User: What shape does this take?
Amino acid sequence: MKSTDIDKKLIGKMPEPLRQHDAELEKLKVEYQRKTQAWLQVEEEERKSIAREIHDDLSQPLTALKINLSGLVRRVTQGEEIPSEKLEQILELNNSIIRTVKRISLELRPGVLDDFGLIPAIEWQAGYFRDLTGIECKFEEPSDIMIDGQIASVIFRILQKILANIVKQAEVTRVRISLKKEADKLNLIVVGNGERSLEEQILDREPFELIGEYAHLFGGEVEMGNPNRGTLVMVNIPLNLRRVSL
Assistant: This one.
């Protein structure tokens, strides 16, 4: 007799409360495994994104700096005169690398989020996004919300992911961000203009699926789809956050 058959017989002999308890434990186990897999997927995508950015934005200038420095060493050892233009070129490469490192660091976690909280951090992100992309970005700042800690980090990271996907849509020229508190939930709404119909938005949901997985890990939900033209993403996160522990 197989072990699974024995298990089924034992479960069948259990009192009803115990059977219900066992079923609830199994349900919790399945849900935990699903959330664990989703969290690992989110982490893996984050690593890939950071790796791509470091490779694309740092590898080339670092290689160019190495080549220039090697040429500089060769000239110095041979007693040749160093043109000022070459020194300026090396200095600019160095400055470019420093700017890139600062930008990546800011995008990962800006100091304003830790120092001043979520609202100033979103205001900073809107301005940073506007300067970086040239897309008009306005944050409709609420007057009665004070959010700190983990929920602030979650909302901010989700906003960054939404903006990163919106910027890939070439027709977008204007973005609006709003934050509202309703009962025990915090709602983040991001609207981008453009010419995409509702059908096109539904077909192009894949870039936003990871955002949904990220929000679900914290008990949140994501809705997208604008009956008018453009892109609309709505995220609600419960204020009593409980993230899966790994």
Notes: The first strand starts at residue 136 and ends at 140. Residues 65 and 90 are 6 Å apart (CA to CA). The chain has two domains: 1-108, 111-238.
